[in-house]
Amino acid sequence: MNLKPLNLWCAYPGDLLGDGVAEACLALVTEEERARVARFKFERHRREALTTRALVRTTLSRYRPIAAEAWRFTENAQGKPDPEPECGLRFNLSNALGLVVCLVADGADVGVDVEPAERAEQILKLASEVFSAQERAQLESLPDEEKLERALSLWTLKEAYIKARGMGLALPLDKFSFLFGGAERVRLEMDPSLGDEPGRWRFFLLGHAGHRIAGMVKREVAGALDVWETRPVLGEPVRVTSGRVEWFPRG
Description:
Layout lengths: L5 E6 L9 H6 L4 H8 L4 H18 L11 E4 L5 E4 L4 E7 L4 E7 L3 E7 L3 H6 L1 H4 L2 H8 L3 H22 L10 E5 L5 E5 L10 E8 L2 E8 L6 E6 L6 E3 L6 E3 L3
Parallel strand pairs: 1-11
Antiparallel strand pairs: 1-5, 2-3, 4-5, 6-10, 7-8, 9-10, 9-13, 11-12
């Protein structure tokens, strides 16, 4: 398989309902990971968690000659994982009940977020808590029928940036903004206190399987993205050709 420097992998927790699929996934993970999965109260959340663990293991093994069950992971203080052994790969995961995604790059930090479209209304209600003043001003200027779409895109973009930085909510949500409009279509602005430069990053939005996906990548690997899905999670990958990946800022 000829993999580009940047790839987005998709898997579906519902597929674990197939015969033997969950058992095959459990065979790949460590005892600690099994215990984490088992702690979820509801079966649907256990499927989501197990799909996430199986997806990252099988995905990394597509890039390096290491068995899926052999991978181990270290986490920074905010919980962002890196593969062990060190192999030059960087990845980020995001999961929802209906879709799990893994964004992988060779040697460059990445962040990804996925949200079901049905969460847009809930996100919009939290606008005063999660969006910057500039983002809220743009949001409030929109016709009502466009506000849900904007809120969903804003939240996934902000989550992807936080995750790419590997700092979690230590990054204040009101100190950076994704602003829509102009030749760039969407641009990132931030307070100097964050210790970062917007020009280091490009980001994308994609609608897939009833979800909004946002990814944040270092500029040097941006733009060469393939999207794959595995059904079930341990199955052969198929390139996704539906949906359009939109990269920003343009120009």
